[in-house]
Amino acid sequence: MSTLEPRIVVTSSDMERLRTLIDTTAGDKADALDAELTRAVVVEPTEVPPDVVTMNSRVVYQDEESNETREVTLSYPKDASLEQGRVSVLAPVGAALLGLSVGQEIDWLVPGGRHKRLRILAVPYQPQAAGNYPH
Q1: Range list of β-strands (E), the chain
Q2: What is the CB-side half-sphere exposure of residue 76 using CA atoms within 13 A?
Q3: Domain map of the chain by residue range?
Q4: What is the pTM of this model?
Q5: pLDDT over 60 (residue 2)
Q6: CATH code for 8-125?
């Protein structure tokens, strides 16, 4: 059964940095992120809704299968740290979270070939909503 992927929103500055990251990263992780970005609606940083997961946003999501709730910060690979709850955008869950908004769900592939379904519950911090615009 195939499901339609949810619409995602990415800021122009995030898109530029992520395209550079993809260009300098080889392999399946970069390909998965590239596939996500090809379906993104690109907006200016000042135009992004405050409930959208952008780079460096803190996001609360729920695993639909286990009902487990997690709060993570979506990070660039150099800033990723499991101990600090900073998930790389190149990790499968990071690529899945990028651009989603509160209430949206997405299926993503976990190691071993299984699928998980995540639902965005909240975006407690988004840089753009806080007035922090990356240069």
Answers
A1: 8-11, 40-43, 58-63, 69-75, 86-88, 105-110, 114-125
A2: 13
A3: 8-125
A4: 0.90
A5: no
A6: 3.10.50.30
